[in-house]
Amino acid sequence: MINIRVYADTSVFGGIYDNNFQDESNEFFEEVKKNRFVLITSAVVQAEIEPAPEKVKIFFNDMIEFAEIVDISTEALYLRDAYLKAGIVTSKYSDDALHVALASVSNCSLIVSWNFKHIVHFEKIPLYNAINILNGYSKIKIFSPLEVIKYEEE
Fold first, then answer.
1. What is the per-residue pLDDT across 13-29, written as a single tens digit (0 to 9) for each?
2. Structural fold of domain 4-147
3. C-alpha atoms less than 13 angstroms from C-alpha of 149 in its C-beta half-sphere
Protein backbone atom coordinates (compact mmCIF):
# COMPACT_ATOMS: atom_id res chain seq x y z
CA MET A 1 0.00 0.00 0.00
CA ILE A 2 1.34 3.40 -0.96
CA ASN A 3 0.86 5.88 1.82
CA ILE A 4 -0.17 9.28 0.51
CA ARG A 5 1.14 12.34 2.36
CA VAL A 6 -1.92 14.47 3.04
CA TYR A 7 -1.90 17.88 4.69
CA ALA A 8 -5.06 18.54 6.74
CA ASP A 9 -5.81 22.12 7.63
CA THR A 10 -7.73 23.35 10.65
CA SER A 11 -11.14 23.11 8.98
CA VAL A 12 -10.88 19.32 8.71
CA PHE A 13 -10.22 18.93 12.43
CA GLY A 14 -13.10 21.30 13.21
CA GLY A 15 -15.25 19.46 10.67
CA ILE A 16 -15.50 16.54 13.09
CA TYR A 17 -18.06 18.57 15.07
CA ASP A 18 -19.78 20.39 12.19
CA ASN A 19 -23.05 18.83 11.03
CA ASN A 20 -22.26 19.70 7.40
CA PHE A 21 -18.83 18.05 7.39
CA GLN A 22 -18.91 15.54 10.24
CA ASP A 23 -19.33 12.24 8.38
CA GLU A 24 -16.66 12.88 5.75
CA SER A 25 -14.21 14.36 8.28
CA ASN A 26 -14.64 11.35 10.56
CA GLU A 27 -14.16 8.94 7.65
CA PHE A 28 -11.01 10.78 6.54
CA PHE A 29 -9.47 10.45 10.01
CA GLU A 30 -10.50 6.78 10.20
CA GLU A 31 -8.61 6.21 6.97
CA VAL A 32 -5.59 7.99 8.49
CA LYS A 33 -5.75 5.57 11.43
CA LYS A 34 -5.86 2.66 8.95
CA ASN A 35 -2.68 4.01 7.28
CA ARG A 36 -4.31 4.90 3.98
CA PHE A 37 -2.93 8.41 4.42
CA VAL A 38 0.11 9.83 6.17
CA LEU A 39 -1.35 12.78 8.05
CA ILE A 40 0.65 15.99 7.87
CA THR A 41 -0.42 19.06 9.79
CA SER A 42 1.42 22.09 11.08
CA ALA A 43 2.25 24.56 13.79
CA VAL A 44 -0.24 26.89 12.06
CA VAL A 45 -3.03 24.37 12.63
CA GLN A 46 -1.92 23.95 16.25
CA ALA A 47 -2.16 27.72 16.76
CA GLU A 48 -5.55 27.94 15.02
CA ILE A 49 -6.89 25.08 17.17
CA GLU A 50 -5.97 26.90 20.41
CA PRO A 51 -9.14 29.07 20.58
CA ALA A 52 -11.37 26.22 19.30
CA PRO A 53 -13.93 24.46 21.50
CA GLU A 54 -12.42 22.00 23.97
CA LYS A 55 -13.74 18.95 22.11
CA VAL A 56 -11.90 20.04 18.93
CA LYS A 57 -8.67 20.53 20.90
CA ILE A 58 -9.04 17.08 22.48
CA PHE A 59 -9.64 15.48 19.08
CA PHE A 60 -6.63 17.27 17.58
CA ASN A 61 -4.41 16.13 20.46
CA ASP A 62 -5.65 12.55 20.01
CA MET A 63 -4.75 12.67 16.31
CA ILE A 64 -1.22 13.97 16.93
CA GLU A 65 -0.01 10.39 17.46
CA PHE A 66 -0.98 9.70 13.82
CA ALA A 67 0.47 12.94 12.45
CA GLU A 68 3.68 14.59 11.42
CA ILE A 69 3.60 18.22 12.49
CA VAL A 70 5.66 20.53 10.30
CA ASP A 71 7.09 23.77 11.58
CA ILE A 72 6.88 27.08 9.80
CA SER A 73 10.06 27.36 7.75
CA THR A 74 11.70 30.19 5.86
CA GLU A 75 11.05 28.17 2.71
CA ALA A 76 7.29 28.01 3.46
CA LEU A 77 7.13 31.72 4.29
CA TYR A 78 8.85 32.54 1.00
CA LEU A 79 6.34 30.43 -0.94
CA ARG A 80 3.41 31.94 0.99
CA ASP A 81 4.69 35.40 0.08
CA ALA A 82 4.88 34.35 -3.58
CA TYR A 83 1.20 33.33 -3.41
CA LEU A 84 0.32 36.68 -1.84
CA LYS A 85 2.37 38.62 -4.41
CA ALA A 86 0.52 36.74 -7.17
CA GLY A 87 -2.78 37.88 -5.65
CA ILE A 88 -4.15 34.38 -5.02
CA VAL A 89 -5.35 35.59 -1.61
CA THR A 90 -4.91 38.88 0.21
CA SER A 91 -2.64 39.31 3.22
CA LYS A 92 -5.74 39.10 5.43
CA TYR A 93 -5.84 35.38 4.54
CA SER A 94 -2.10 34.78 4.57
CA ASP A 95 -2.50 31.79 6.91
CA ASP A 96 -4.58 30.05 4.24
CA ALA A 97 -1.73 30.59 1.78
CA LEU A 98 0.69 29.37 4.45
CA HIS A 99 -1.24 26.09 4.74
CA VAL A 100 -0.76 25.51 1.00
CA ALA A 101 2.91 26.51 1.23
CA LEU A 102 3.58 24.20 4.18
CA ALA A 103 1.97 21.29 2.36
CA SER A 104 3.96 22.06 -0.77
CA VAL A 105 7.38 22.34 0.88
CA SER A 106 6.62 19.20 2.96
CA ASN A 107 6.20 17.09 -0.19
CA CYS A 108 2.53 16.36 0.39
CA SER A 109 0.61 14.85 -2.50
CA LEU A 110 -2.55 16.63 -1.53
CA ILE A 111 -4.28 18.98 0.84
CA VAL A 112 -7.68 18.34 2.37
CA SER A 113 -9.71 21.31 3.53
CA TRP A 114 -13.25 22.53 3.94
CA ASN A 115 -12.08 26.08 3.08
CA PHE A 116 -13.85 26.55 -0.24
CA LYS A 117 -13.16 30.27 -0.40
CA HIS A 118 -9.36 30.40 -0.22
CA ILE A 119 -7.99 26.86 -0.65
CA VAL A 120 -10.40 24.36 -2.30
CA HIS A 121 -11.43 26.65 -5.14
CA PHE A 122 -11.33 25.92 -8.86
CA GLU A 123 -9.80 29.31 -9.72
CA LYS A 124 -7.17 29.30 -6.98
CA ILE A 125 -5.80 25.75 -7.30
CA PRO A 126 -4.15 26.30 -10.72
CA LEU A 127 -2.67 29.58 -9.43
CA TYR A 128 -1.16 27.88 -6.37
CA ASN A 129 0.27 25.24 -8.69
CA ALA A 130 1.69 27.78 -11.13
CA ILE A 131 3.54 29.50 -8.31
CA ASN A 132 4.74 26.12 -7.03
CA ILE A 133 6.19 25.24 -10.45
CA LEU A 134 7.82 28.66 -10.82
CA ASN A 135 9.46 28.15 -7.42
CA GLY A 136 10.65 24.60 -8.02
CA TYR A 137 7.91 22.70 -6.17
CA SER A 138 5.56 20.02 -7.43
CA LYS A 139 1.93 20.64 -8.18
CA ILE A 140 -0.33 19.80 -5.27
CA LYS A 141 -3.82 18.36 -5.43
CA ILE A 142 -6.40 20.15 -3.31
CA PHE A 143 -9.66 18.48 -2.32
CA SER A 144 -12.30 18.36 0.37
CA PRO A 145 -12.30 15.18 2.50
CA LEU A 146 -15.50 14.24 0.64
CA GLU A 147 -13.42 13.75 -2.50
CA VAL A 148 -10.67 11.55 -1.02
CA ILE A 149 -12.44 9.09 1.25
CA LYS A 150 -13.29 5.59 0.06
CA TYR A 151 -16.87 4.68 -0.63
CA GLU A 152 -18.24 1.15 -0.44
CA GLU A 153 -19.43 -0.30 -3.71
CA GLU A 154 -23.15 -0.94 -3.63
1. 999 999 999 999 999 99
2. Rossmann fold (3.40.50)
3. 20
